[in-house]
Specification:
alpha/beta; 5-stranded antiparallel β-sheet; 467 residues; D-tyrosyl-trna(Tyr) Deacylase, Chain: A; 11 helices; 7-stranded mixed β-sheet; Beta-lactamase
């Protein structure tokens, strides 16, 4: 009995030591005014069965965009890195002398990466198939996703920002208009990166000599919806030191953006069309003309994780739901599929709330321990190379570009960041100085969470310097 008590005491002592934050991390949190009770940390070598550091690791926390690691890891394992989305084109009518006497139907299956270049490729293939003029309408079939999935309100008051755009079974360019700001001939120029005629720009911006750290705070924009498009008025100031900057706005719903892009590209390809836009199911009498597939999922997850694309993550969650449970896709189906997958792997994350899969959520929840356990499991899974490669490389690219660039940990960590008001998080893998890889998770839920970056960096360096 005495030996068992000593053994139990050693276990408890080790657990207590592991629960204490490294002094350098605790110091940075104190400097930021963040109590340790608002922080959860989990560090574990991928080759070991127990954690090196476990502080509040069983506490349910909001992970912000770190939730994308759950969504992308589940997708890579459930769908496979070679999974591709399809987009189908149908005709409802006869073709005579390169003229479709009827409607053209585009049926989407939720491709999150379908951009203007993909649309151009789709339409030129259509012309090569013998259709160069359309007498009917363009019908967009979005039934692969549940109709309610595009009707939710914006996450915050920035209703025009691209990150607030809802998902769609047929999404073009993420329905994103990117405005480019730069100084030319002693004036501030504002242009659309992909120009749509339905967007008019009024530029009242003034050139000033100043720093560029808060350039978005120094500019304003107003949106006026017109009969055949929108008018965007820009004001405020812009500095030559900023070089080129971009602001992404979502000015149209998914249907209008797709329709306006179709008309632009079809016209530039020399096609004829004077019809209207309709939304509906593909008619039974329609005949399939072509099918185009996306890049593999193993490539698509790069954009989701490296640049923290919220809309693409939402599209991915819905795809999981449709592929695993059945169309029409819903977020609840996607969440259920992920939880079933985790359960079948012996991971019971009772606190997990995936919500929309992107982390742009007030209700998403996970513990640091469970996130860490998932990362360790992912490291030993077949899709590990694609999963790890999708994460930003410390100091080198993505959302951690330039971070800890003067540290020996530069380039030796793959880490996903997350931030919301009151939330800051980081998770991923860190390679220590001896070549041992560790899963690292740090979740901060506090009003001053945005000031926790120095503490996160201190934790990364602490792990990198482990003996």
């Amino acid at each position: 009995m005495r030996h068992w008590l000593i053994f139990l005491g050693l276990i408890l002592a080790n657990f207590q030591a592991a629960a204490e934050l490294p002094p350098v991390v605790a110091s940075e949190l104190a400097n930021a005014g963040i109590p340790e009770a608002s922080v959860a940390v989990y560090v574990r070598a991928v080759a070991d069965d127990s954690a090196i550091l476990s502080h509040n690791a069983d506490k349910s926390m909001n992970p912000a965009s770190v939730m994308k690691l759950v969504t992308t890891n589940a997708a890579l394992n459930l769908l496979g890195p070679t999974f591709r989305w399809k987009t189908e084109v149908y005709k409802n009518g006869n073709v005579l002398n390169s003229t479709l006497r009827g409607d053209l139907i585009i049926k989407g299956y939720g491709d999150p990466s379908f951009n203007a270049q993909d649309f151009w490729r789709l339409l030129i293939t259509l012309q090569q198939a013998g259709i160069k003029k359309i007498t009917g309408d363009l019908i967009i079939d979005k039934d692969y996703f549940d109709k309610e999935e595009g009707s939710q309100g914006a996450f915050d008051s920035e209703v025009w920002r691209a990150y607030n755009a809802p998902p769609s079974a047929f999404l073009v360019n993420g329905r994103n208009t990117s405005f480019r700001f730069k100084v030319t001939d002693s004036a501030v120029q504002v242009n659309q990166e992909f120009e749509l005629a339905e967007i008019k720009i009024i530029n009242h911006m003034k050139l000033v000599e100043s720093g560029c750290a808060a350039w978005r705070d120094n500019m304003t924009y107003q949106i006026k919806v017109a009969e055949n498009g929108v008018v965007v008025t820009f004001g405020g100031t812009f500095s030559p030191s900023c070089g080129e900057k971009y602001l992404e706005l979502s000015l149209f719903d998914d249907e209008k953006y797709a329709f306006f892009t179709f008309k632009k590209l079809w016209r530039e390809l020399g096609g004829g069309f004077s019809g209207r836009l309709k939304i509906g199911e593909t008619p039974d009498a329609a005949v399939k003309v072509l099918e185009q597939t996306s890049a593999p999922l193993g490539y698509v997850v790069h954009d989701i994780n490296k640049w923290s694309n919220n809309l693409m993550a939402r599209q991915l969650l819905l795809t999981i739901g449709a592929e695993q449970i059945g169309a029409p896709a819903t977020e609840s189906k996607g969440e259920a599929a992920i939880k079933d997958w985790l359960f079948n792997k012996g991971l019971r994350f009772n606190e997990l709330v995936v919500d929309n899969g992107s982390g742009l959520s007030h209700t998403a929840r996970i513990t640091a321990e469970h996130m860490g356990q998932m990362l360790v499991g992912a490291y030993h899974a077949p899709a590990m190379p694609e999963f790890m490669a999708s994460m930003p490389i410390l100091a080198r690219d993505g959302t951690v570009m330039g971070r800890l660039k003067n540290s020996q940990s530069n380039g030796r960590a793959h880490l996903k960041t997350g931030s919301l008001n009151g939330v800051s998080a980081i998770a991923g893998y860190v390679l220590d100085a001896n070549g041992h890889r560790h899963a690292l998770v740090m979740l901060v839920n506090h009003a001053k969470a945005g000031a926790s970056k120095a503490a996160q960096d201190a934790l990364i360096e602490w792990v990198h310097q482990l003996p």
